[in-house]
Design brief:
Blueprint: E1 3-7, E2 13-19, E3 30-38, E4 44-49, E5 59-60, E6 62-65, H1 72-84, E7 93-100, E8 104-112, E9 127-133, H2 135-143, H3 154-163
GO molecular function, one term: hydrolase activity
Cofactor: Mg(2+)
Pfam family, one: NUDIX
């Protein structure tokens, strides 16, 4: 049973937890992370969602809900380990941005890694495939509606790392 900490709209913890799968109390939010992983060639690592999940068979960055007692950074590291079997170097992680969505706070993270696909261990209930893609391929996948539509465009997010915008 997965439990999440509950937050208010201003991201203040409410001192209560919530069980996944049960409707959130009105005015409550939970915390979600999206983890963008880029290699030294400038490619980003995408994973393909299990067909029985919401947005099944579409490609996305790794991510998920932060568990009760975790912070956003810890959740990003855990989700990546669970879904891809990839242990990220914590010193290579950078926070990109946060936003409030319908019933959750969404944190975007950036990590560097040169992991090979052969060394990934996919969580079969969540992920059915993984691949590294360059910007041209990502743009084509986006155009062809192969990317989860609620994701940010990662290259705009990465620009923040270098310009502060």
């Amino acid at each position: 049973m997965e439990r999440w900490d509950l937050y208010d709209i201003n991201r203040k913890k409410l001192g209560r937890t919530h069980e996944r799968g049960v409707q959130l109390p009105q005015g409550s939010y939970h915390l979600v992370v999206h983890v963008w992983i880029q290699n030294d060639k400038g490619e980003i690592l995408l994973s393909r969602r299990h067909p029985e999940k919401h947005y099944g068979n579409l490609w996305e960055c790794t991510g998920g809900s932060v568990l009760a007692g975790e912070n956003s950074f810890e959740g990003a590291l855990r989700e990546t380990k669970e879904e891809l079997g990839l242990e990220l170097d914590p010193s290579l992680g950078k926070f990109l941005c946060s936003e409030v969505r319908a019933d959750f706070h969404s944190d975007q993270w950036f990590f560097k890694s040169n992991a090979t696909l052969e060394n990934l261990f996919l969580q079969k209930e969540e992920v059915i495939d993984a691949k590294w893609v360059d910007r041209f391929t990502y743009d084509k996948m986006l155009e062809d509606n192969e990317i989860v539509p609620t994701l940010h465009y990662p290259y705009h997010l990465f620009k923040r790392l270098y310009t502060g915008d």
